[in-house]
Specification:
By secondary structure, this protein is α/β, with parallel strands linked by helices. Bound molecules: nicotinamide-adenine-dinucleotide and magnesium ion. Magnesium ion (MG) binds next to helix 10. Pfam families: DHQ_synthase, DHQS_C.
Length: 376
């Protein structure tokens, strides 16, 4: 007679990082080939109905596999919606297409929205989930480095407003994040570099060991060595999870994750959404912040130099766009979300590598000098 059919123990993902938020805690699974692990995803799908949200670039690459993996899980009924691709489509009008699909499919409160794609898809899907029926379940399958190390973790969701990036949104945590590192094989080089910029950020604001590792391994990472990618992604998720667990709603320490972002948002907005990638703008922004920190006497001259050299090895920009003026920077920076009572606050480096502060208490002439030096 045939041997009893053993239920094969599924291989564990190579890494699991926890995001500790009390009863809203969730796991981040990291590993190669996890997209096929419908069982892992299904654990975090409480109802029967799933809506996978993706875009026209990611759909031909991964949508079938994702839907198959989920449909293979007993009684899940899986629908999907494919949105246009691009930062310029990160709008409330495009979020409406998600709600339209959910209404057509008659999804109920027990439904789950799955974001399959980069940060744009993740941010929009999360916002759509936060507000559909006043909140349905939501999980993230990020497929860019940017989304895997940053945007899929921590619950910031939303869309752009014509007058400012990410101005409309909600804090809404996913029920799990599933990172398949192999999806990065198809990512364009420029997008890979853009995400690496945020990895460098974690090194600068709180993880000197990661910064040293990057100085030793940048070429491996850029060559998409699977081990190097897994390490850098895991380390980044740990850093993000720790910060978010301490300060979910950005009342304090979470703002440090915005190193380079105030300068960077000015670049993104000034150039028009999508001209500079988010991580590219953050890259130049981090060099500007490091430079200003040195001008204030808060870090050694060697630090801005090391930051610049490391980012150059990732093929990232380290200067302001030639067309931008100091006035343009100032105007756009004045509407930054960190502005309090009319005072601009910046994330600046201070002390040893891995140390930073969020402060409005700095000599303003050093900001002026920095803008003048970076704008030609
Ligand atoms: P993106 O979502 O636009 O993706 C970049 C490009 O890569 C797109 O063309 C996309 O279709 C394509 N793509 C995605 N996965 C792919 C794959 N595996 N193979 C081939 N192509 C693929 O950009 P992004 O850099 O992932 O995210 C940027 C967005 O994320 C910005 O809107 C930014 O504001 C947001 N963001 C949010 C947070 C947060 O905390 N919520 C943090 C950082 C960034
Ligand atoms: Mg960012």
């Amino acid at each position: 007679s045939a041997a009893p059919s053993a239920i094969a123990a599924e291989p564990a993902p190579s890494e699991v990082v926890g995001v500790d938020l009390g009863d809203r805690s969730y796991p981040i699974y990291i590993g190669a080939g996890l997209l096929d692990r419908g069982d892992l995803i299904a654990r975090h799908v409480p109802g029967r109905r799933v809506l996978v949200v993706t875009n026209t670039t990611v759909a031909p690459l991964y949508l079938d596999r994702c839907v198959k993996a989920l449909s293979a899980e007993g009684n899940l009924q899986v629908d999907s919606v494919v949105l246009p691709d691009g930062e310029e489509y990160k709008t409330i009008e495009v979020v409406q297409q998600i709600w339209d699909k959910a209404m057509e499919c008659r999804l109920n409160r027990q439904s789950t929205f799955v974001a399959l794609g980069g940060g744009v898809i993740g941010d929009m899907t999360g916002f759509a989930a936060a507000s559909f029926l006043r909140g349905v379940h939501f999980l993230q399958i990020p497929t860019t480095v940017m989304a895997q190390v940053d945007s899929s973790v921590g619950g910031k969701t939303g869309v752009n407003h014509p007058l400012g990036k990410n101005m409309i949104g909600a804090f809404y945590q996913p029920t799990c994040v599933l990172i398949d590192t192999e999806t990065l094989d198809t990512l364009p080089d420029r997008e890979l570099a853009s995400g690496v910029s945020e990895i460098v950020k974690y090194g600068l604001i709180r993880d000197a060991a990661l910064f040293h590792w990057l100085e030793d391994n940048m070429e491996k990472l850029m060559a998409r060595d699977q081990q190097a990618l897994t390490y850098a992604i895991q380390r980044s998720c740990i850093n993000k999870a720790e910060v978010v667990a301490q300060d979910e709603l950005e009342g304090g320490v979470r703002a440090t994750l915005n190193l380079g972002h105030t300068f960077g948002h000015a670049i993104e907005t000034g150039q028009g959404y999508g001209v500079w990638l988010h991580g590219e703008a953050v890259s130049s922004g981090m060099v500007m912040a490091a430079h200003m920190s040195h001008k204030l006497g808060w870090v050694d001259a060697s630090l801005p130099q090391r930051v610049r050299e490391l980012l150059l090895r990732a093929n990232l920009p380290v200067d302001a766009p030639p067309s931008m003026t100091p006035d343009q920077f100032r105007t756009i920076m004045a509407v930054d979300k960190k502005v309090q009572d009319g005072k601009l606050r910046l994330v600046l480096l201070k002390g040893k590598l891995g140390g930073c502060v969020v402060t409005g208490d700095f000599d303003g002439s050093k900001l002026t000098e920095t803008l003048d030096e970076f704008c030609h």
